Amino acid sequence: MKILELKNVNKIYDGSEVPVHAVRDVTLEFEEGEFAAIVGPSGSGKTTLLNLIGGLDMPTSGEIIIDGVNLAKLKPSQLIDFRLRNIGFVFQSYNLIPVLTARENVEFIMSLQKWPRKERDARTYELLKAVGLEERMNSRPSKLSGGQQQRVAVARALAPKPKFILADEPTANLDSKAASNLLEIMEKLNREEKITFIFSTHDPRVVKKARRVIALEDGRVFSDEKIQSVND
Amino acid sequence: MIPEISWKNIWRNKTRSLIVITAVTLGIISGVLLVGIMQGWVEQRIHDAIHNEVSHVQIHNAEYYDNEDILSTIDSLNKIISVLESDPEVKAWTERTKLTAIATTPWASTGLFIYGINPQKEKEVSEIYTKIVPNGGEYPDINKTGYILISDKTAEILQLKQYIITEPLIEKFRESRLPDNIVIKLDSIKGIRFRSPKEFKAILEKKLNWKELDMYGKLIMDSALDYRIRNRIQITLSDCNGNPVQGTFRVCGIYKTTNTGFDQASAFVNINELAELYGSDTPLVHEIAIMLHNAENIDNVKNKLSTVTDKNIVHTWKELAPDAAMMNDFMYMYYFIFIGIIMLALAFGIINTMLMAILERTKELGMLMAIGMNRKRIFSMIMLETIFLTSAGAVAGMLAGWVLVSMLGKTGIHFSSWGEGFEAIGYSANVYPVVTFDFFIFVIAMVVFTAVLSSIWPARKALKLNPVETLRTE
Hints:
Oligomer: heterodimer
CATH class of chain A: Alpha Beta
Number of domains of chain A: 1
Structural class of chain B: alpha+beta
Structural class of chain A: alpha/beta
Distance between the termini of chain B: 27 Å
CATH superfamily of chain A: P-loop containing nucleotide triphosphate hydrolases
Low-confidence stretches of chain B: none
Shape of chain A: globular
Strand content of chain A: 25-35%
CATH topology of chain A: Rossmann fold
Mean pLDDT of chain A: 88
Largest interface: A-B, 28 and 24 residues
Number of helices of chain B: 21
Low-confidence stretches of chain A: none
Number of strands of chain A: 10
Helix content of chain B: 55-70%
Order of helices and strands of chain A: EEEHEEHEHHHEHEHEE
CATH architecture of chain A: 3-Layer(aba) Sandwich
Helix content of chain A: 25-40%
């Protein structure tokens, strides 16, 4: 089932003296349950494309349609609410709320969505267990390693069962062991939860795990390749 | 969860938050203390004005009120008495003769109002009988004739207040902890009569050094004070025909209230004796003083008494002591000024702290916006942080202020060095601070208002953040 569609999306930054065409005429479609990597060198437009898909930035032209909703038609307040209910974010530098414990960080979006307490608790435990951190659920981010923090961030993004998760360079700050561990968890959750993962990366280990690889160059889609996984 | 995050956010930078909380605490303590002292003075002034000077309500003949003529007595006295006797709101009342007179002793004279009173009834409307100074004799008795009650100030003017170091006093000083060298110095002025505090103080200043004076001056002054009780005072006034008449009274007692102005102008004698002096078979009644069960009903009583006759004029305490009434009415304005200034000063510190907190957390705020925290929630989070930060200090300040005021309310604060100045305008040199429940409600409202106001700028700053840009920063 198609959950995300980009039609001739362009993004031009006019701020500087020379306009920067960060994303050029990108047309893509994503199905439910995909595990897709957006790759490309620095400055190829990976992060900009993720920001556009996540509704954090608006395209200069073109349309982004998520589950039948055209993002350009939403008012700013509706867009924030749309993000809250449909998109999960995983950031390069984890960005957990430092004053909350791992459990509270995972609960946070569900509490904004007003999930009942019981369901919230059950979902939090289930996800922290899935990422192997049920023993550290009461630890604050400062007491967790980078890999553990990123696993909490993945659990947080998954918690409210969004339509898809956008992860911007999720392994960039992790050592190879932590990165591989995170990828295994993401892959497992992608299969079990049937939630689409779209992540930008230039880490070959991540690319290897992806079942679809979209390569960007100078803001254009250079290639879009679906890879038959051994698990499929 | 937003309130929880806000509360936890305060403690990210403990030192910075504690500085703000301490500043708010100290600000509120000073506000509570300042208002407590003010309120204590106002309540003391109102209490003393009502219970010593003017009662709740007074009635005079309208003409007497203008010209103080001896024959301008209260109109329709019997009707008024019958209204007073039948009114359940009236607790007590008394009638007075009030005449201008000159009091003379062999050493000095002064003008004053001489009140003819019924001592028994007077005790029900006035607390002057409780204001007799130590070793100052006694309040007039209805059964004893020829006595006058004067104030400490009048005694001083008429030189009936003298200071003398006697042999028994020297013995007493020796037995007490007074150093020997001071006793020796005092022995050198033994037996000399000083007719004014100024004169005695001057000799003490010559004999003792400033440190000795500071430590023992008050004790020596109080111990050496000797009122010339039973001394005669000649009173000169006009009789019913306008002719001057003179009478002699012995001083039965000396009183002292917190209002030197009132004290200086007021002396009391038996109402019937005064009538004999001005040549009337029955006492002339110029003033009726009334105390009520509940001061809230004052306007009802005034209206009832005003309808008896239009020749009299009825005044409430607010009209007779407008200074006290004004202070009472303006109390809320004082609250607003004192607490307003304190909160305004604190607001700058709070804004500064919150701005720093926001600038340190731009990336986190950007992340919160990205994952779907809307403007309302971001604003609430920052506003709650400000309210918690300010309220923590305010609660601590109110508690500490309340404890301080409660303690000082029992011990009092003694401004003895400025005593004369305070008493000249009707305020006691000993103030017992008091704060009302209303005041704390007012402080809470002001704290919340300040916190909300202080949060607007930092919150607006946060709302202007662009999630994409903030997330890009490392």
